[in-house]
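Quick start: what a row looks like.
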Amino acid sequence: MLERVLVQDPGRTPAYLNLADALERLGREREAREHWQHYVELRRAQGLGIPDRVLKKLGSD
């Protein structure tokens, strides 16, 4: 479902975070990491902060 949302609206930043979290719960760590990284890129481009938990997942705290 979230993947379809992102196909239709790739700028929907929270969907990348939600998808990454779901993938992590499924044990798909590499894919989750890619989506967390994209989430961070979008947030920075928007001039928004990054949640600490995301930075920790990426080892950037």
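That is the whole record. The mean pLDDT is 92. The radius of gyration is 11 Å.
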